[in-house]
């Protein structure tokens, strides 16, 4: 319910071992907090929801990993924890110095971490 402090981003580790029926609703909810939250998702065992595990990580600039049965979870969680502990740049603003009306995409910039890339588009309302 509460946003992280100014200049900070929330890191969520989600471990799942099964299917869920409302994948799209969960991903949409998490996409709505992607400007302040990054989700690291782990699919455990034989039949985790691949669309949920991948979708959450992709929608929030997080990472995902599938851990096969009878495999130690510790190594995979440790690797993701190292990524989660990186500092990030937040509250990014892009100013377009153009003489026409601009619509930026995305409208709210997500946090950017080491070795990540951020792509922003300017949609100009100018036929020339």
From TrEMBL:
<dbReference type="InterPro" id="IPR002035">
    <property type="entry name" value="VWF_A"/>
</dbReference>
<feature type="domain" description="VWFA">
    <location>
        <begin position="1"/>
        <end position="85"/>
    </location>
</feature>
<dbReference type="Pfam" id="PF13768">
    <property type="entry name" value="VWA_3"/>
</dbReference>
<dbReference type="InterPro" id="IPR036465">
    <property type="entry name" value="vWFA_dom_sf"/>
</dbReference>
<protein>
    <recommendedName>
        <fullName>VWFA domain-containing protein</fullName>
    </recommendedName>
</protein>
